[in-house]
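Handout, section B. The chain below has 682 residues.
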Amino acid sequence: MSATPPTITGVLVANRGEIARRVFRTARGMGLRCVAVYVDADAGTPYVTEADVAVRLADGGHMDGDAIVAAALASGADAVHPGYGFLAENAAFATAVANAGLTWIGPTAEVIASMGDKIAAKATAVAAGVPTLPSSEDLTDGDAVGYPLLVKATAGGGGKGMHVVERPEDLAGAVATAQREAMTAFGDDRVFLERYVPRSRHVEIQILGDSHGGLVHLGERECSIQRRHQKVVEESPAATLGTDLRNSMGAAALRLADGICYQSAGTVEFLVDDATGEFFFLEVNTRLQVEHPVTEEVTGIDLVREQLRIAAGEPLGYEQNDVSFDGHAIEARLYAEDPAAGYLPAIGTLEAWEPAVEPKVRWDSGVGVGSAVGVDFDPMLAKVVAHGPTRREAVGRLALALEHLHLGGVTTNRDLLVATLRHEAFLAGDTTTDFLERHAPATTRTHDAPTANRVAMAAALWVRGRNRADALVLGMVPGGWRNARLPDPEITLSRVESDEPAATVRYRRDRDGTFQATVCRTGDGGNASGKHHVTVHDWSRTGIDLAVDGLRGRARITTVSANELAGRGEVLHVTMAGTTTTLEVVPRFTVSGVEGSTGGLTAPMPGRVLNVGAVVGDRVKAGQSMLVLEAMKMEHHLAAPFDGTVTEVRVVVDDQVDNGAVLLIIEPDDGEAPTGQDDADD
């Protein structure tokens, strides 16, 4: 007699941010109550306020399985969805959920355990006749695997605990680093060695299995555009995968899944050698993937709904021949990080956040205006997914949606994503895992001089309009009417966190309501750009619609008040011409005593000091590693910005440091820090 299928009325999501909101969206559509768990840092975030019930977690946070089970029982939830990351692939947690009488939304604990150990998973793949890469558990014998090789964490995923080793002499250091990262991220420091294929494609097969023997795959996703072995762009179907190879990989995935009696949604990941066309098994992710929306868009199948149906004991209700595919879908992960600084995570507050309305794309996000971005969690802000009848059309929609996104306050990879999507090599299908290294798309969008001048004039005339709207007197007096000719008004703007010269916009309003404007940039010897004819068609608190020399466009603008104590003027986030430019209105009068000292190596984020590689008196070279910080469960190496001598070391190992803290002082060889060096005071 078969067990009675569980009844699900409420779902607790043992996760946060974007994926919690994503599960809530489907669960509500099925008439289910939604329960959130949160830590203090997330107390005001959208997923918490959107839940029917929210339960605060104590010190252990989302890694405290016992606390999460207790939260489910206390809130009346009868099912737990793990999302991805945290405890999503923790067999002990899945067991604890089941033992508490709750329904686990995922595969069985036994399957999670067997696939969570990458070495055991490889053995299972071999038994199913699926090809694998050469590997070894002997961490000293790289020669047996062959160079280049990859040090990989045995447990977990997400690119953590993974390091490429090119030379035997670098093996020991990479192993040690991978072990530390694996222990921090997964509580398991086991690693192994695996052959690394430099020119390869990362292709994965989405599978679904029920408790009645039903099993299908939903096609592939190519996830080859990566940094730090973490995916950045994912698409389906794969750009260059032939029919025979696609069918072979789908069949291999089903053989493996059938051998372990897989239930729920999962992903079988493969590496495809770009030179030979051979494919090799990598791992099975026994959870919902970050990039699952790509499959949803091309198949029309809601994977979260399928997970909930399967957990409730329902059959799939369809077979492999019933699965159809429509068009092309592509996803970009928008991260709070600085690609120009080795993809260091960025922190701050989202002062502007307004996803594009057109073109219509899917925005899966866990943030909003005012969201604080810290180092406690993964720096992903949103997943942006576009669908179209062809690959080129889907890619174009995604790029345009990212260009139209209005954001500010946090450094992101938005410009890098757009540059990648619009790169001719990417459009041609050259999408191997080393794409970013080989093609080096621009990390920051820079405008040509005419476009930069239009942005500056839009910002300056918006400020002019705001000042007149806020004026207590003479606010309605036309600017062109004066008893005597006065000097043209001017506003000076500098681009925040950029070495670009400041721009001074001078303007005069004519009697017909139009403007004559010029732009003069610092370092141009006082030469102006020439006189521009400007017509303001519309002004509002949120933007300005203007034509410069007949070229009309709209700028979306969000402001942040001046901080006189820091010597900073008003900040403008200006979305125009394909990106958001952050400008500071340079104060006419500066506050004395706020200048920082030069030569200080500062912390780019809060974190823990893992290693200090210098002492006072050391001679150092530009690019030499000085310190190692741990933040967001990853190690970040901080390098000397110039040649010089260490004159002061202010931290020791295990110190917790704040963002911007001075870690050590380097006296430059020429006595002066290069322009653009981060200055900091105590």
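Note. The first helix runs from residue 17 to 29. Compare this with the example in section A.
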